[in-house]
Design a protein that fits this description.
Elements (H helix, E strand, L loop, with lengths): L1 E5 L16 H11 L3 E3 L6 H10 E4 L3 E4 L18 E14 L2 E11 L2 H12 L11 E2 L3 H11 L4 E4 L19 H5 L8 E3 L6 H4 L9 E3 L14 E5 L8 H10 L3 E7 L9 E3 L4 E3 L1 H6 L15 H8 L14 E4 L2 H9 L6 H14 L2 H6 L3 H7 L2 H12 L3 E3 L8 E3 L6
Parallel strand pairs: 1-2, 2-5, 5-7, 9-10, 12-15
Antiparallel strand pairs: 1-11, 3-4, 5-6, 6-8, 11-12, 13-14, 16-17
Helix pairs in contact: 10-11, 13-14
């Protein structure tokens, strides 16, 4: 069977994160989305760990489930109810100086058990304050973080997070490196995967031969429950009883059982294009070069985005297809589609009401977006919703790229339509 895993989320103890990011809410929304395995996020934060110990119970396979007394099935449509498993995850921000430049690199850490989490947190608490933020900021070389994780457990894993984000990633234009090897040096063989981030997709990343051996994973980096699964991973197991931490880690390490990813249209990401948000200036890589990396309005340096960075480091032309490409599926969240179809705000009551009605009729969001036959969508929804989802599935979208922290806009219909 195939199942969906979102392994990068945050708790309410992270900055700029919804207070609704609780285990109960994550459990509810995972079912509504169709996610089977979800990262706990923030396992470095003492209060979140305390809640983990109170509300989650360990099951076979080094995964966890929500304790029965916190599981209110009445909050989940009957058509969506399913098992949800939690896996221990955290994101750590490393800010340090290397080779004469300040580096800001975010990394994901996956842990097999609470004992390993305790040891990692003990080591990291000697370096910085883990209570200050769910995603702690440490003055620690990313390579040394990897060494700490490996020394504690060979079953734990470090994955560079959203690797192209300009300001906080291993390959970012503002504070990153030119390669994984430049960052992790002799420990680079222990990097088995990278997270591609919202502003790039696998096709962009495969233009770099240096990533050929690397598994490209995708996660939501959700700061609110409704954002779960905006990107996610598709994995395979013999059945639900076989889903385990080791199965997921082995799929990431070897590619065996890793069946693809669910992606944003990369233009919708905050940093797809270059630009200067203060002046409302968005630039393609070619335009940035023509303007000598300066904003044509104010003359200050623009923020160099993901597309530009990929172009700079890529050795292959756009459109390169590997011999055995893993599939990926570019989606638009159902609430955004409904917002466009109904011509009301995405956070409106009308959108939420129709969203819940469709889930009740058709099942989880991913089922609706990826699998439900068009005739059924038209019958239970509308002809316009059918047309919208068919266009999304075929990639017929209109995109205005995001830039300098401003989300892009991806629509399914032109204004005249």
């Amino acid at each position: 069977m195939r199942f969906i895993a979102d392994l990068h989320i945050h708790s309410r103890y992270s900055r700029a994160t919804s207070r609704d990011m609780t285990f109960e809410s994550l459990w509810k929304w995972a079912q509504m989305k169709g996610i089977t395995v979800i990262g706990t996020g923030d396992f470095t934060h003492p209060q979140w760990v305390a809640e983990h110990k109170e509300k989650l119970e360990e099951i076979d396979g080094n995964l966890f489930k929500l304790h029965e007394k916190y599981s209110d099935n009445g909050l989940v449509p009957l058509s969506c109810r399913a098992d949800v498993f939690f896996m221990l995850t955290a994101e750590i921000s490393c800010i340090y100086s290397k080779k004469g430049k300040v580096r800001k690199v975010h990394n994901l850490v996956f842990s097999p058990d609470i004992g390993t989490v305790t040891k990692i947190n003990k080591a990291l608490s000697r370096i910085g304050n883990l209570s200050s933020d769910g995603r702690p900021i440490l003055g620690l070389d990313a390579k040394e973080l990897l060494r700490i994780v490996l020394d504690i457990s060979d079953r734990a894993m470090l994955v560079p997070a959203h690797i192209w984000t300009p300001h906080f990633s291993v390959l970012g234009a503002a504070s990153g490196f030119e390669s994984l090897e430049e960052c992790f040096e002799e420990l680079t063989p222990h990097i088995h995967a990278v997270e591609t981030g919202l502003s790039s997709d696998p096709a962009m990343n495969r233009r770099l031969p240096s990533l050929d051996r690397i598994t490209l994973i995708s996660n939501s980096d959700a700061h609110s429950p409704a954002k779960l699964g905006r990107e996610a991973n598709i994995l395979e197991s013999k059945g639900r009883e076989d889903i385990s931490y080791d199965l997921i880690m082995n799929a990431i390490k070897t590619g065996i059982g890793f069946a693809g990813t669910i992606e944003f249209f990369p233009e919708e990401g905050k940093y797809h294009y270059d630009g200067h948000r203060h002046c409302g200036v968005s630039l393609s890589p070619e335009e940035t070069l023509r303007h000598n990396y300066l904003c044509p309005v104010c003359g200050k340096k623009v923020t160099v985005g993901v597309m530009h960075r990929v172009e700079k480091l890529a050795a292959r032309k756009p459109g390169y297809i590997p011999d055995k490409p893993l599939p990926f599926y570019s989606i638009i969240p159902l609430q955004e589609i409904l917002s466009e179809v109904l011509k009301v705000g995405v956070n409106s009551k009308a959108v939420m009401r129709e969203y819940m009605r469709l889930l009740d009729c058709l099942g989880p969001e991913f089922t609706i977006l990826m699998d439900t036959p068009p005739d059924t969508i038209e019958e239970k929804g509308s002809p316009l919703l059918r047309e919208a989802i068919e266009r999304m599935r075929s990639g017929q979208v209109h995109a205005v790229p995001g830039y300098d922290g401003e989300y892009g806009k991806v629509s399914l219909f032109e204004h005249r339509e």
